[in-house]
Amino acid sequence: MIATSASMSPVRIVDVAPRLAAVVRRRVRYAEMGDAQRRARPLLEAALGAADVVPDGPPLTVWRPVDGGLVDYAPGLFVPRPIAATGEVSLLTLPAGQAAHLKLTGSYAGLPAAWERLFAGCEGRARTGLQWEVYTAAGANPEATETDLFALLV
Fold it and tell me: How are the residues of the chain apportioned to helix, strand and coil, as percentages rounded to the nearest 5?
């Protein structure tokens, strides 16, 4: 087995601006998240290609916990302008406000611990339940992958 390491930045409270994203939204179990990602990416690429739109930033996933062990899960791509909803692809706007933020550097296997640390570092402020991850891939080196985690605050 290959050893993996991850590092996490301190949790900071940051201002976030509204951002438009094309997403494929589904309700999934935690164990189904990877499959939902793999299924959504080609749909998103096809929709943006048909609209002649280039992504406006790295990929992201927006999520909210829901009842019954399910997650309202929406892999997506930032877009510079609205596109027509097609098939399973729709638009979502991340709202402006304040969010707790943490940067994870390393394997996605570190995400559960990173979210736990982020939630613990919200400085006692209530969360809205809207969370998102923004992914910056580092080519063939998964240990250099960066994931920015955000939890919108009340």
Answer: 25, 45, 30
Q: Which domain holds residue 23?
A: 7-153
- Cα(100)–Cα(153) distance, integer angstroms: 7
Cα–Cα nearest to 132, from 43, 23, 35: 23
Q: What's 32's domain CATH number?
A: 3.20.80.10
| DSSP structural state of residue 54 | -
Measured distance CA(133)–CA(63) in Å, rounded:
9
Q: Is 24 part of any domain?
A: yes
Question: 110-152: per-residue pLDDT in tens?
Answer: 999 999 999 999 988 999 999 999 999 766 777 789 999 999 9
Radius of gyration of the chain measured on its C-alpha atoms? 15
Look up residue 145 and give its amino acid: T
On whether residue 2 sits in a domain, the answer given is no
Rounded Cα distance, 7 and 106, in Å: 7
Tens-digit pLDDT profile for residues 32-59: 999 999 999 999 999 999 999 999 999 9
- In angstroms, the CA 147 to CA 74 distance is 16
